[in-house]
Amino acid sequence: MRQSQLFCKTKKETPKDAKVISHKLLVRGDFIEQTISGVYRFLPLGFRVLKKIEKIIREEMLNLGAQEVLLPTLQDKKLWLETNRWQTIDPPLFKLLDRHQKETALGPTHEEEMVDIVRKKVKSYQDLPFSLFQIQNKFRNEIRASGGLLRQREFLMKDLYSFHSDKKDLINFYNKVKNSYFKVFKRCELKVHYVEASSGTIGGELSHEFMVVAESGEDRILICQKCGYGVNIEKLSERIKKCPKCRGRLEKKNSIEVGHIFYLGTKYSKAMSANFKDQDGKEKPILMGCYGIGLPRLMATIVEIHHDEKGMIWPKEVAPFQLHLIKIENSPKVKLATEKLYNDLTKETIEVLYDDRLDKSAGEKFADCDLIGIPMRLVISERTLKQNCAELKRRSEKKTKLIKINEVKKYFQ
Fold this sequence. Notes:
Elements: H1 21-28, E1 32-34, E2 40-42, H2 44-63, E3 67-68, E4 74-76, H3 77-82, E5 94-97, E6 103-106, H4 111-121, E7 130-139, E8 154-164, H5 167-187, E9 193-196, E10 206-213, E11 219-224, E12 230-232, E13 250-265, H6 267-271, E14 275-277, E15 283-285, E16 287-294, H7 295-305, E17 307-308, E18 311-312, E19 323-327, H8 332-347, E20 352-355, H9 362-372, E21 376-380, H10 382-385, E22 389-394, E23 400-404
Parallel strand pairs: 3-7, 19-20, 19-21
Antiparallel strand pairs: 1-2, 4-6, 5-6, 7-8, 8-16, 9-10, 10-13, 11-12, 11-13, 13-16, 14-15, 17-18, 21-22, 22-23
Helix pairs in contact: 1-7, 2-5, 2-7
C-alpha cells in the first residue's frame, strides 16, 4: 500500500475526551473514530488490525474443532422470555419496536439463539458433543461507555458455545478452551492471568476471566505471588489476605479482562427444554459452556501494553503491515531503488506500507511511522544507497543498522 493513497490522516493533538493511552493513540493514528458514545468506526488501519486479531481467534477456534456460524443481531423476544432475561439481564437490552408493533432486541449475547438451534437438532447422546462459534457484533446498553475500545456499546465479539452429555466431558472441553485462549493471547504478545470470576447475568456454576495487568484496567484482581492463583475481587464475599491455595501473599492489581469462560451447566437447556436421550433412553438436559473474547477490547489492550511516548508498537501477528518503507529524498536514484524494492516485496506477499508522500518532510514521515507502530522501518536515502543498503530499525528498539537491499527479504521468511 502506498501511503499517498492510504485513507489516513494522523493527528498531533490528543482528543479531549480520551483518558487511556490506547484511546489517545488509536484516534491520533487514525485507526478509529467515535460516532456516538461507545460506538466507533474502524478506519483502514484499524480494520486491518481487527482482521488480524480475528484471524488468530478463528484459527484457534477451528483448531479446537469448533464450527463457525453466523446468527442474527435482531433476536426474538419469545426466546428471552423463556429464560426470563427479557427484563432481568444487566445491562438491559436495546429493545426495538418494528412497524408491526412487534418487539425484538439487539443481541448482547447469544445463549438463547444457540439453544434454540440445538434443541431442534439434538435428540440423542450420539449427537453430542459439539461446539459452535461466531464472530459478530454485540450490543450492550452500558450506563457508561469509557476508555475508547475498552468499554463499548457496540463491538465485535467471538462467542463459542459447547454442548455435552456429561459433566466430565464439559470440564475437559472447558480446559481445552482455557489452553486455546492462552495461545490466542500469546500470539497477541500479552501476558494473562487466569482468575476465578463472578458469572454475572450470564450465570452458570463456574467462570474464569483472562486478565492483563494494566493501570488503565477497571477490574481489580488479587494475584498470589507464590503460586499464581488469581481471583477477581468482585467474586469475593469477604476480604482475604492469604492465598486459599498455598497461603502465599496476595497482591492487588488493576487489570483488563480480555476473555471470559463460563461453565453454564443446564441453566439454559432446562429453561428452554433442550434435552437429549442418554444410552438408557432417559431424557436429560444438555450441558453447556460458553466462552467469549471481545476483539476491539483485545486490540486496545495490546496498545495499552505495547506503546512508548511516540506511539504504538504492534506485535508482529496483529500489525496492520509488516514493514514501513520510507524514502527520504526524491532523487531519481532513490525513487528507482525504493520503487523496485516495494514491488519486489509486494510480489513476495510481504505487507508493506510505502511512504511515497512528496509533501512530507523526513521528520514528519518518521513521526507518523512511530505513531502507527509497524514492527519494522526501512529507510532508503542517497546515503544508504552509496553502500547499496537500506537502514533497518525495529519499532521496539532504538538502534538502527544498515542491511544490503538484496537481503531485505530474509527478514520476513
